[in-house]
């Protein structure tokens, strides 16, 4: 972990502009000392660096959230051996895609703001208490979100709430149990709500920086994992009833309006989107990953989810292209036109309002059979927006109801980094009551030749989490490898 934190020592000496030039912040290779924290602009610069680091985790978010599930698979183009092995459940501790350093960089920048921002109030008259609390709210959100990715992928991880500022700071930290990590995440997010903004001065800030609604969205997700379903419903209702967000109308003037979520970005549907802007030299590799180099494709299983309705505006020509299985939502300028994007600056969407409807539906299912009709109503709202005329009806068992929700999530969030987490969340509830569900779902897209080996791995629940990278183990003697990987190298 020492290696992880040394790369964070930086002086951020630039001013913060009023537009999303702020997200071009890049730390210089010097140390953030105690003397650095003198004014509002310096606090905001460190906060901005946290968002920049989050942006740099985008491919890990994609790989961690998709490549162990059944929604995406490796494409026909060049693919790294590390990504291929994750997709094939041949994961070793030396795999570069199990490195967690960038997420801990996000956490460290958040920890810096949380510790030092209150001191700046006394030094800078323009930095009043309310503004400071708003910045703290964003820092707690970033820390909570980063830990949420870590706990879902590694289970037990080091819990660090103090910033790494110099070589005197202890960098060898043992893992904390996942339940403690989840408690810290809830504390961070629940505490962040009070001072969070509802809207920001610009659209990109409202969608690209933490607001009450992005915090509530993350809380709803966390509560689903901690099996606190009444709290999940309440968090979803806070977003749905905010008056600030809503499902886009599915078709406008005979055009596929759903597609605007991705082609345009920062729509009324977006809650939290990692920002990119070609005009400011802020680009990503989505066109390359899904198009030019065909690194990732949709699976035949994903295509099959759309087979029951030719009305669904999210299917062929929108989420994916028929034949080459490209994820068209990231490649095209408009749905069903075949016209490619000129450049790659699509926002990476972490939460949007359709997910709030489906998270609430999932929570209602888990509240019992008496809530199944309410769950189905929420699913059908998402389906109606997709122009599907035939509603789904409640089914008899909890697992069947959960499958209705998961199948709808599979249609709505193709390639958005959600698929594996959906499978794991359903399976692991109530002490892995539905472990067979996880095995069945993963094997839907496994090659027949390797299916028996993958199945044997999945029977051990420890294999559902990633190994700690060898570099981290070497740098931090207090770390212990995740149990499944003790004897692998």
Automatic annotation (TrEMBL):
Keywords: Cell outer membrane, Membrane, Signal
Top-level division of the source organism's lineage: Bacteria
Sequence ranges assigned to domain RagB/SusD in this UniProt record: 333-485
Annotated GO CC locations: cell outer membrane
Subcellular location: Cell outer membrane
SusD-like N-terminal domain segment(s): 21-224
Family: Belongs to the SusD family.
Protein known as: RagB/SusD family nutrient uptake outer membrane protein
Taxonomic source organism: Echinicola strongylocentroti
Lineage: Bacteria, Pseudomonadati, Bacteroidota, Cytophagia, Cytophagales
């Amino acid at each position: 972990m020492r290696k992880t934190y040394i790369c964070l020592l930086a002086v951020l000496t630039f001013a913060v502009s009023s537009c999303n030039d702020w997200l071009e912040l890049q730390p210089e290779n010097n140390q953030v000392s105690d003397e650095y924290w003198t004014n509002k602009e310096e606090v905001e610069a460190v906060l901005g660096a946290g968002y920049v680091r989050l942006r740099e985790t985008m491919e890990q978010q994609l790989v961690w959230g998709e490549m162990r599930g059944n929604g995406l698979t490796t494409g026909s183009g060049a693919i790294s051996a590390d990504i291929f092995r994750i997709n094939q459940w041949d994961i070793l501790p030396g795999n570069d895609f199990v490195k967690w350093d960038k997420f801990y960089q996000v956490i460290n920048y958040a920890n810096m703001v949380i510790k030092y921002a209150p001191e700046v109030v006394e030094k800078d008259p323009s930095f009043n208490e309310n503004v400071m609390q708003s910045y703290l709210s964003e820092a707690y959100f970033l820390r909570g979100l980063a830990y949420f990715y870590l706990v879902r992928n590694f289970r037990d991880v080091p819990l660090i709430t103090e910033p790494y500022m110099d070589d005197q700071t202890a960098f060898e930290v043992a893992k904390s149990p996942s339940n403690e990590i989840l408690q810290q995440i809830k504390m961070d997010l629940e505490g962040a709500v009070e001072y969070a903004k509802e809207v920001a001065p610009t659209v990109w800030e409202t969608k690209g920086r933490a607001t009450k609604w992005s915090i509530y969205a993350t809380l709803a997700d966390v509560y689903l994992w901690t099996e606190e379903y009444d709290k999940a419903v309440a968090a979803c209702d806070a977003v749905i009833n905010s008056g600030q967000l809503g499902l886009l109308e599915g078709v406008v003037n005979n055009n596929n309006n759903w597609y605007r979520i991705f082609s345009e970005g920062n729509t009324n549907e977006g809650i939290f989107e990692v920002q990119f802007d070609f005009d400011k030299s802020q680009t990503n590799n989505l066109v390359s990953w899904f198009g030019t180099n065909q690194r990732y494709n949709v699976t035949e299983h994903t295509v099959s989810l759309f087979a029951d309705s030719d009305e669904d505006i999210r299917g062929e020509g929108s989420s994916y292209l028929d034949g080459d299985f490209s994820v068209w939502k990231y490649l095209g300028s408009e749905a069903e036109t075949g016209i490619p994007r000129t450049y790659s600056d699509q926002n990476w969407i972490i939460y949007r309002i359709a997910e709030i409807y489906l998270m609430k539906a999932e929570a209602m299912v888990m509240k019992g059979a008496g809530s199944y009709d309410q769950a189905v109503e929420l699913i059908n709202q998402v389906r109606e927006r997709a122009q599907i005329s035939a509603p789904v009806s409640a089914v008899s068992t909890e697992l069947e109801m959960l499958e209705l929700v998961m199948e709808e999530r599979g249609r709505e969030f193709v390639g958005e980094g959600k698929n594996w987490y959906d499978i794991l969340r359903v399976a692991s509830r109530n002490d892995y009551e539905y472990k067979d569900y996880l095995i069945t779902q993963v094997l839907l897209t496994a090659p027949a030749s390797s299916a028996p080996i993958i199945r044997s791995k999945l029977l051990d629940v420890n294999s559902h989490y990633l190994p700690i990278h060898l570099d981290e183990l070497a740098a931090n003697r207090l770390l212990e490898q995740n149990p499944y990987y003790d004897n692998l190298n």
